[in-house]
Design brief:
This protein is 37% helix and 22% strand. By secondary structure, the chain is α/β, with parallel strands linked by helices. Strands 1, 2, 3, 4, 5, 6, 7, 8, 9 and 10 form a 10-stranded mixed sheet that branches. It has a single domain, classed as Rossmann fold. It binds S-adenosylmethionine. S-adenosylmethionine binds next to loops.
């Protein structure tokens, strides 16, 4: 099995673990302030237009997206999550589909195509390009795409098993809770870390690395501001706005790097020349 398809196999398992299902069904509106800022930026520009929500998971973004427009389709390649989302949001158009191949969906149709919460990082680099090309195909000229991605220059890059050791505090109750939590997580996280860390690789502009989320159950792409902008431009997009995860600040168009944990990219398919 190739290095890349191994990454796909690892992450597909992670999405259906108890830890992932618990996290995806938390009553959380936004993942971070950057996501909130991005949605606020997009809402007036995409109001009433057809929306596509890729990697919808258990449905956290359904309410957010539908507050922009009721013309909504959600897709995910994890069947178990699509089934769960259908139970939680009956009557919503939710389809089992891999974002690398969305031929079932019409070209040049959607006003907004979103892939939230760093979902795009779960596929290898070729898969990422395929997804962005599919996003380009299905979004209408003048329409927007929105996705987030882990930042290789951010504090999350290079997480190791030590991250799961309990942080010291003088509060004995808190300390006890942290020690207990680590004791529960460490055996499975340690096992996953040993299995997945050998897949870590650095490339020009991006890295593939196991991350602490889901007990080191995922192996993901970390990219840079510069490389992501370059890749978007290569596919034909214009980058409109980038927001940092921590403060929800808009990152300057001429910034070369950022120290946010992850970055929210908004890009536009240019209007066709007349
Ligand atoms: C971190 S979860 C986020 C779920 C949801 N968007 C949310 O914010 O709660 C990433 C989701 O992306 C989905 N996903 C990853 N790669 C995908 C692909 N190639 N095609 C479709 N869905 C994908 C996973 O199944 C998972 O549900």
């Amino acid at each position: 099995m190739s290095h890349q398809s191994k990454l796909d196999r690892v992450n597909r398992v992670a999405w259906t673990t108890r830890d992932a299902l618990r996290e995806f069904t938390l009553e959380k509106r936004y993942t971070d302030r950057g996501e909130q800022a991005a949605f606020e930026w997009l809402a007036p520009r995409c109001a009433g237009l057809p929306l596509l929500d890729i990697g919808v998971g258990a449905g956290r973004t359904i309410g957010l997206m539908k507050s922009i427009s009721s013309d909504y389709v959600g897709v995910d390649y994890t069947e178990k999550l699509i089934v769960l989302a259908r139970q939680r949001f009956p009557g919503t158009d939710l389809r089992h589909m891999d974002a690398r191949d969305m031929r079932e969906l019409p070209s040049s149709h959607f006003g907004l195509v979103a892939f939230s919460w760093n979902g795009i990082d779960a596929v290898d680099y070729e898969g990422r390009v395929q997804i962005l090309k599919e996003m380009y195909r299905v979004v209408r000229p003048g329409g927007y795409i929105f996705f987030s991605s882990h930042n290789r220059n951010g504090p999350g890059y290079g997480e190791t098993i030590w991250k799961l050791l309990p942080r010291f505090t003088f509060n004995p109750v808190k300390l006890g809770w942290r020690v207990a939590r680590s004791a529960v997580r460490l055996p499975v996280a340690g096992f996953n870390y040993m299995r997945h860390a050998p897949m870590n690789r650095d490339f020009e502009g991006y890295s593939i690395m196991t991350a602490a989320a889901h007990n080191f159950g995922i192996v993901i792409v970390y990219t840079t501001l510069r490389e992501q902008r370059r890749q978007l431009a290569e596919i034909g997009f214009e980058t409109d706005a980038v927001f940092g995860s921590c403060e929800g600040n808009r990152i300057a168009d001429n910034a070369e790097s950022s120290d946010a944990w992850w970055l929210h990219f908004i890009a536009r398919r240019p209007l066709d020349p007349d």
